[in-house]
Design brief:
Length: 730
């Protein structure tokens, strides 16, 4: 790890493990992007900028300055000066003009990594873990300073980026676009990989070659969304899991975003990521600052698998925080699909009583315990106990569950309010709304204005009363609708378009208060399933509910796509009942458990009603989960099958960091007639040593043979069947 400045070439070089990133100050203080990729020796690479070719630099050929602006690979491109490619920054100055012109001013290099005020971001556990470069740019006419912030991690192929804008003048300036990162690629021969979908089928992998013009994914829903995830990879056409170059980009943010690649007239590619500029403005008064969220950039010279494992290591060690960062999560049973709204305290206790006998460690009481909520049409915002449903009160129920040796968890949806609620009747102005327009209902609820501290304080006060009233050790934080009619009764006219971002900052503020005041509570985020599965949420909660679709076969795709940049330890995954409540499919109880073991593992069913055979198998499932969970949480994840290419089977592995053991999991989705056993090649093992499979210790095979020749998967009959194998180093 090192960050250096070369005075002779006027360039900066950031080295992160086996990756380097180079940028250079060129003619008249413009900052150009030179290189991003595999580590290189220290040498002058400014020839890559082609400054000695037409249209040359303005110093040489000022008559064609606009052509220079439209060809230079800018490190952070601005609007209005002749660069007609997509820009990263645009403003409205005191005269109403939108042109911006950032020029190099100064730099500083220091150990460690800065905190981004009010925002989640990756961090260092010690100052020697990373180094940071700050480059200050200035627009003298607009009286703005922009500080580009880069951090290079020592042992990971990771460079993070953000930007801080400061008004150094005497007049107000409006920011109309502030993207967090721009990277220029000296090629158009790249594929773009994104994670798209909808409710119950989140993060489906899509891959397509770039073409001339702009291709993007984004969200304008007020959340990172089911439909598009704030992750993109650009890779060579031939890149696969194990070979080829790949560049991964992930936005540490939970609101509106854009991820865009543009193939330009000269067959280069400009990539940008940041807060979606649609309906965005930010008023900067004199001496005020605006900090954009962080973009995590990962380079891999060995395919998508290495890229993913780098993201996993970074997020497990340098994003997830708190007591459960490195701990096995409690095995829980959630009553949602077991009872929906139709439960009482006694019913919950019956589930807990049976579950405790089977080794399940926590009962989670989901939606329906508050206000007068018997369906999804009332009471959000009324965070006080529904006494006629929770007979005897919350503490009595929690104490009874605790007496069984079980922990207790609870569901909240703190960002929402029901029209039929005490809160809305008393404070209708607290909902996000446009005056004079009818509020749009979704799931018969509105969104609270979290840009307002008084609203956040009120909701948090109610939550604290609940949390202080009983021994609650887990919270499921849900968000079940998107934002509409986005305006605030508390913001002045000139700041209304700040609400999208202020809303997200308000959510972060409340989550930060919660995790600070209750550090021992396990927080799991959820948004109608997986609509906010993003690194911004991971900063506050070590796990996120992966999807409301708990069908084992559907989860193969969902968890595959999620693993592109998010670690399996963050995936909320449960064994649910069959026929599955989303797709109606019936799968073996054992397969449901094997698929859920990839994630946090738990149950979501009425354990008092399932078959005796399934009930009797739960202790063995829990024992199996406990046996392998450390390997799953901390090991390297290798994708072997791919349901997006072949939906008849799937397989994956977790390999210990020292390669001493590996867990192989296989699912036969569809049985095949008149076929011999399937040959599957393993990954990630030590080629030079021998391994045995735990159930057959007398047979030794080298890591080389297991990876190059594979193993034969046979003895499986029927659809949706699974098998796990544990390989141990001799």
């Amino acid at each position: 790890m090192s960050i250096t400045y070369n005075e002779k070439s006027n360039s900066f070089k950031l080295t992160a493990n086996n990756t380097c990133y180079i940028l250079s100050v060129v003619s008249e203080g413009y900052l150009a992007h030179v290189y991003f990729g595999k580590v290189l020796p220290d040498e002058n690479l400014n020839y890559l900028l082609r400054l000695d070719e037409n249209p040359f630099t303005p110093e040489t050929n000022n008559r064609d300055r606009a052509s220079f602006m439209d060809t230079l690979p800018f490190e952070y491109p601005c609007f209005g000066l002749g660069d007609y490619r997509e820009h990263a920054l645009s403003i409205l100055d005191k005269n109403g003009a939108s042109t911006c012109d950032l020029r190099y001013k100064s730099y500083k290099i220091y150990d460690g990594k800065p905190v981004l005020e009010g925002l989640p971001a990756t961090f260092t556990n010690s100052p020697d873990e990373a180094q940071t470069l700050e480059i200050t740019m200035e627009d003298k006419a607009a009286e703005l300073e922009a500080t580009l912030i880069y951090t290079a991690f020592e042992k990971l192929d990771v460079i993070t980026r953000s930007i801080r804008i400061k008004n150094v003048g005497q007049d107000n300036v409006k920011l109309t676009r502030v993207y967090s990162a721009c990277v220029e690629f000296d090629t158009d021969k790249l594929d773009m990989i994104t994670l798209n979908g909808s409710w119950a089928r989140e993060r489906a992998l899509e891959r397509a070659p770039l073409h001339h013009g702009k291709q993007s994914v984004d969200s304008m829903r007020g959340e990172s969304s089911h439909q598009s995830n704030p992750f993109t990879a650009l890779c060579s056409h031939k890149a696969d899991e194990d070979s080829g170059e790949a560049y991964g980009f992930n936005f540490v943010y939970s609101g509106n975003f854009v991820s865009q690649a543009e193939v330009t007239q000269h067959k280069k590619t400009r990539y940008l990521m940041g807060i979606n500029s649609n309906d965005f403005e930010w008023l900067l008064e004199p001496d005020e600052k605006f900090t954009a969220p962080e973009v995590v950039m990962v380079y891999s010279d060995s395919g998508l698998g290495k890229m993913s494992r780098t993201f996993h290591d970074l997020y497990r060690n340098n994003l997830v925080r708190g007591e459960y960062k490195d701990k096995r999560r409690p095995i829980l049973i959630n009553n949602w699909e077991a009872t929906y709204f139709n439960f009482t305290a006694e019913k919950l206790y019956q589930i807990a009583e049976q579950a405790s006998k089977l080794g399940i460690e926590m009962l989670v009481m989901d939606d329906g315990w508050f206000g007068h909520r018997d369906a999804d049409n009332s009471s959000l915002g009324d965070w006080f106990v529904y006494d006629s449903k929770i007979e005897g009160g919350l503490k009595a129920l929690v104490d009874r569950v605790n007496s069984l040796g079980m922990k207790f968890g609870i569901w909240f949806e703190p960002e929402m309010v029901s029209p039929d609620s005490q809160l809305y009747r008393e404070h209708p102005d607290w909902a996000i709304q446009v005056k004079g327009r009818e509020l749009t209902l979704c799931r018969e609820q509105y969104v609270l204005d979290y840009s307002r501290k008084d609203v956040r304080d009120y909701i948090y006060g109610l939550m604290r009363k609940i949390l202080d009233s009983a021994n609650i050790e887990y919270i499921k934080w849900d968000m079940n609708r998107q934002l509409t009619e986005v305006a605030s009764n508390a913001l002045p006219r000139e700041r209304q378009r700040e609400l999208w971002h202020r809303y997200v900052l308000g959510v972060y503020d409340l989550m930060n208060r919660l995790t600070t005041d209750y550090p021992h509570i396990l927080l799991e985020n959820c948004s109608g399933g997986g609509a906010r599965f993003d690194p911004g949420m991971l900063y506050y909660s070590p796990q996120i509910w992966c999807s409301d679709d708990t069908d084992a076969v559907e989860r193969l795709k969902i968890q595959y796509g999620t693993s592109m940049c998010y670690p399996c330890s963050a995936m909320g995954a449960h064994v649910s009942d069959c026929p599955n409540h989303t797709v109606g499919r019936s799968t073996p109880f054992s397969t449901r458990a094997h698929v859920a073991m990839v994630g946090t593992f738990g149950y979501e069913l009425d354990v008092t009603k399932i078959s005796q055979e399934d009930r009797d198998s739960i202790p063995a499932q829990i024992a199996e989960f406990n046996r392998y969970n450390m390997l799953v949480r901390t090991g390297d994840h290798y994708r072997i099958g791919n349901m997006f290419e072949d939906n008849t089977w799937d397989a994956w592995m977790f390999v210990a960091k020292d390669k001493s053991e590996a867990l192989f999991e296989f699912v036969q989705v569809l049985g095949r007639p008149n076929e011999r056993s399937r040959s599957v090649k393993l990954k990630g093992l030590d080629r030079e040593v021998y391994y045995y499979e735990e159930s057959n210790p007398d047979v030794l095979l080298s890591g080389a043979a297991l990876m190059q020749c594979g193993i034969n998967i046979g003895g499986i009959w029927g659809d949706y069947q699974s098998k796990i194998l544990h390989f141990i180093k001799k």
